[in-house]
Amino acid sequence: APLSKAIDRADYVVGLPAATLDALGVADADALLAHIAKQRAGAMTVVRDVKGIKRNIDVQQYLRAVEVGAGHQQLSRAGMAGGLVPLTFSLHLPGSGGARAAEVLEALLGVSDPSARMVRTFMGMGDLTPMQLDALRALPALDRGAPPVDESPAEAATRAPVVGSSDVASSVQPTSPFDSTPGE
């Protein structure tokens, strides 16, 4: 089976420097939380331009979770330090199409090409990585074109709250250092 059948989720942690927060007009993690909640309340569409062909991407339908203030450990493990405010998010990855991590960040912050450091902390299916072949083979065959269990990606995105790190524990699962790579 193709590798894409073993991947339906990717988690990222983003480190935002003070200059990016200043450009957004936010002073701290609490203000960033409010800014992102406001962004999520509106349309979360970005324009993808590939060789002059422009497409609108509805980021909201792929976004599963967003958490402001969680991810310090993953940033540190990736060698990123220096007063970065962490932001984590989780994406649903369908068999085809989807949103890129940089597009999600653009939609969440409301600015294109923000200055930030990004690390992918997980890519796999459920809690399994593509390297866990025996466990993946034991799963029932999945229809990659269907939304997960009784809900569309858009429905799941609307119920995924924007939270601060004091509200819930981080959902980002640490993986091996070989899985932590810069974002797309």
Structure description:
- The protein is of the alpha+beta class and 184 residues long.
- It is 26% helix and 26% strand.
- It is built from six helices and eight strands, in the order E-H-H-E-E-E-H-E-H-E-H-H-E-E.
- The protein has helices spanning 18-24, 29-41, 72-77, 101-109, 133-138, 153-159, and strands at 9-16, 45-50, 53-58, 63-68, 85-92, 117-124, 162-164, 181-182.
- The longest helix is centred in the N-terminal third of the chain and has 13 residues, at 29-41.
User: Widest sheet: strand order?
Assistant: 7-4-5-1-6-8
Alpha-beta content class: alpha+beta
How helical, in percent, are the residues?
25-40%
Backbone shape:
globular
Q: What's the total count of β strands?
A: 8
Rg, nearest Å: 16 Å
Low-confidence stretches: 143-154, 165-184
Quick take:
This protein has 184 residues and is of the alpha+beta class.
Provide keyphrases for this structure.
26% strand; two-stranded antiparallel sheet; six-stranded mixed β-sheet; alpha+beta; 6 helices
List the helices and strands and how they pair.
Elements (H helix, E strand, L loop, with lengths): L8 E8 L1 H7 L4 H13 L3 E6 L2 E6 L4 E6 L3 H6 L7 E8 L8 H9 L7 E8 L8 H6 L14 H7 L2 E3 L16 E2 L2
Parallel strand pairs: 4-7
Antiparallel strand pairs: 1-5, 1-6, 2-3, 4-5, 6-8
